[in-house]
Amino acid sequence: MPHVVIIGGGFGGLAAARQLRGAPVDVTLLDRRNHHVFQPLLYQVAMAVLSPGDIASPIRWILRHQRNVEVLLGEVDRVDPGGKVVHLVDGATFSYDYLIVAAGATHAYFGHDDWAAHAPGLKTLEDALVMRRRVLLAFERAEREPDPARQEALLTFVIVGGGPTGVELAGALAEIARQSLAADFRHFDPSSSKIILLEGGPAVLPPFPEPLRDAARRDLQRLGVDVRTGTLVTRIGPGFVETGSSRIAAETILWAAGVAASPLGAALGVPVDRVGRVFVQPDLTIPGHPDVFVIGDLASLAGPDGRPLPGVAQVAMQMGAHTSRNIVRAAAGQPLRPFTYRNLGDMATIGRASAVADLPVIKLKGWIGWLAWLFVHIFNLIGFRNRIIVMVQWAWSYFSYQRAIRLITGK
Amino acid sequence: MPHVVIIGGGFGGLAAARQLRGAPVDVTLLDRRNHHVFQPLLYQVAMAVLSPGDIASPIRWILRHQRNVEVLLGEVDRVDPGGKVVHLVDGATFSYDYLIVAAGATHAYFGHDDWAAHAPGLKTLEDALVMRRRVLLAFERAEREPDPARQEALLTFVIVGGGPTGVELAGALAEIARQSLAADFRHFDPSSSKIILLEGGPAVLPPFPEPLRDAARRDLQRLGVDVRTGTLVTRIGPGFVETGSSRIAAETILWAAGVAASPLGAALGVPVDRVGRVFVQPDLTIPGHPDVFVIGDLASLAGPDGRPLPGVAQVAMQMGAHTSRNIVRAAAGQPLRPFTYRNLGDMATIGRASAVADLPVIKLKGWIGWLAWLFVHIFNLIGFRNRIIVMVQWAWSYFSYQRAIRLITGK
Q1: What's the pLDDT at A383?
Q2: Do β-strands A299-300 and A278-279 pair in parallel, antiparallel, or remain unpaired?
Q3: What is the C-alpha to C-alpha distance for residues A100 and A314, in angstroms, rounded to an integer?
């Protein structure tokens, strides 16, 4: 039977593996982590609402009943499309008949790698725990800080980037400061914290239609977030952010701006875009190798409007399923079909009970948007257990205003 | 008002702080972590049943409504009982009128500190995550290991120490291997894993009465645990454990044997026992300093049978509450009262539905023991949220045989 190797157990790789259930192929899924993360809720781990275990499941557990799939923990070093071999960092090699590269993307700093130490980003569970740690430690240090200026810097939180992640982080952080921590400190009022959201473009949530962008901005401001659009960050250092000639003293800076594709894309030896995404052909293969498919955040493909498809879960999942159907066709001697994207809508949440949803037939905001967001996200959580737990967790968090998972762990 | 400083937010320190609710004193609770851990369930985090957030809560959250208490994050360096000052590692100092030292204990290696790298112990959330990581990684590596001898070593788990922690770890690990992982691997049968429990004494669970010790041993054996009593570990190195002249090849070794008290005890300048516990007077003060109290795992006090009271939660909690009552009496000019321990019973669980409980009026085992264990432990979990979540988690884990929090994170 043909051997399909899938690199990456994110939304794309997992959708590809699931689509191959019962197909006459042997599948090897390689990932350098043992778990799939439900990325849209990662910010809730970073903001101490959910535990890592609520939004992540072992990949081999998700695929345990699919007997034609083996899941292996391993980090891919490079791909040799000529020899049809995948090389791991530890020296192991895997031959393939068909390869699906779904290695994803991580956050990037536009060439300012020194900013990384001062402004952590959010792509993995570990990233989320680092953010949680920094935010909670800032409040702890503020409680012991006698100097008012230093205390103010400890209670100033800057979020760089006004996309969905930045908006969600800012909204959640504002709620923590204003509500969850209200009774916890004796030497300052947590609701006096400053939460500043910096966005270089003219509006937050750039891909959304204007009425929803405006609604998001108003909701953030109502939560007490200082939203500054058209503001480019020029420098980040220990305890400060500079935007042109002005400087913000902030001990906690969270990065929600740039993205860079996995270096595995460029290593394929085919053209990539400015952030390292592979220019794929309409059938998601790479030029000259009809047996190598690149999907998800690592792929650059123009959508119906001519702009590249966004790096979101639904694009990756649709690409994964499509590619597996193409592989089954190819194995049967049939031609590959081009990929077409069906946009089911975009969503972003702003705090506990407000969200914007840009759906094909309707645009939602406020409470209704939030309910839609809740339904879609809980429905899509992989693993029955997670859904129940997350529901209980949220219900409790919602009614009590508490963030009970406020643990500082690590280091 | 008199200033009471409490060092440590474990069971003892927290009970002391809570007992001072409404008392005419100002309380400062210092801890180097921001969270209280429900230690009896720590093994469930180590064995991927529960998340850290299920068994830990921020100390300041627990005490948020107690307005006479401030909770500060900080590591104590030393105490100066003459000057009545506590010095932190970061240079800060706190004067006190009354001091409660509840700094606890950690695991120790009987002078073999080099064993620590190969056989992690279990005292903090971080320790539990290290154990979880090692156990899960061993299975992952076994899936990719072609050499049968090395694969066998990867699937051999040695637990050193047959006290409650060792018994609980062994039982949970056996269930994971035999049940939870059953469908997950393609290149070995997880139920072929070897779980070996080593105990130097003649029986597991030494403090329990003989019928319960025998029941625990039988239950472990029924789960497939190889219980070896009267077996002293003489050497531990990378991938092996030696017991006299025999050697076990095992990639995963878990330490549940020795304990050492916090060095803060010895630093008080008063006599300590072999593991560093302070010999306290009947009123839990130290000789020459009627304003310094040592409680919990850090205190050595003979019980009614002449043997030192065990380092368990109920001893610490009773000592904490008693000490706070004594402080209120002392502040009112009344004499201190001696501490008397009221034993409410001992419990240990062996896997999913079996436990032994040695209660004052009755001894329980099997199913009934397990229900008693479940009730007592969930009832005592601090924070309403945790109880509900842990119940749901357990119900799911129980009915599905799944350990869904099998995440390998960190490093």
Answers
A1: 63
A2: parallel
A3: 17
Instruction: Look at residue A24 and give its three-state secondary structure.
Output: coil
- Give B115's contacts (C-beta < 8 A, 6+ positions apart): B109, B236, B255
Residues of B in contact with A392 (CB under 8 A): 388-389, 392
Low-confidence ranges of chain A (pLDDT < 50): none
B149-191 pLDDT tens trace: 999 999 999 999 999 999 999 999 998 898 888 889 999 999 9
For B28-48, how does the pLDDT look when each residue is reduced to its tens digit (9 = 90+)?
999 999 999 988 889 989 998
Sheet of strand B194-198, all strands in order from the earlier edge strand to the far edge? B225-228, B194-198, B156-160, B252-255
Query: Which residue of chain A comes nearest to B35, CA vs CA?
Result: A407
User: CA distances (Å), A208 to each of A163, A205, A316, A365, B110, in order?
Assistant: 10, 6, 19, 12, 63
Beta-bridge partner residues of A270: none
Nearest to A56 among B384, B385, B407 (CB): B407
Residue B370, H or E segment: helix B366-380
Determine phi and psi for B197, rounding to 5 degrees: -105, 120
- B51, B58, B74 ranked by CB distance to A144: nearest: B74
The full DSSP string for B20-50 is TTTSSSEEEEEESSSEEE-GGGHHHHHTTSS
The DSSP code sequence of A179-211 is IITTTT-SSS-GGG-EEEEE-SSSSSSTTS-HH
What is the pLDDT, as a whole number, of residue A315?
A: 94
Chain A nearest-CA distance from B33, in A, is: 7
Q: How many CB atoms lie within 10 A of CB A72?
A: 20
Report the C-alpha gap between A53 and B49 in whole angstroms: 10
Catalytically active residues of A are 168
Cβ-Cβ contacts under 8 Å, B187 against chain A: 70
Sites in chain B below the pLDDT cut of 70: 382-386, 389, 393-404, 411
Interface test with B, best of A49, A186, A386 (most B CBs within 10 A): A186
Res A403: pLDDT: 55
Q: What angle do CA A258, A262, A268 make, to 5 degrees?
A: 135
Residue whose tokens read 């003293």: A249
- The residue assigned the tokens 């393939």 is A96
Interface pTM (ipTM) of the complex?
Answer: 0.89
Length of chain B: 411
User: Cα distance from B128 to chain A (closest Cα, Å)?
Assistant: 11
Residues of A with CB below 8 A from B386's CB? 404
- CA-to-CA distance for B256 and B131, rounded, in angstroms? 11
Catalytic residues of B: 168
Q: How many helices (H) and strands (E) does chain A have?
A: 12, 25
Give me the amino acid identity at A254. Answer: L
Is B144 in contact with A183 (Cβ distance < 8 A)?
no
Contact A408 B70 (CB under 8 A): no
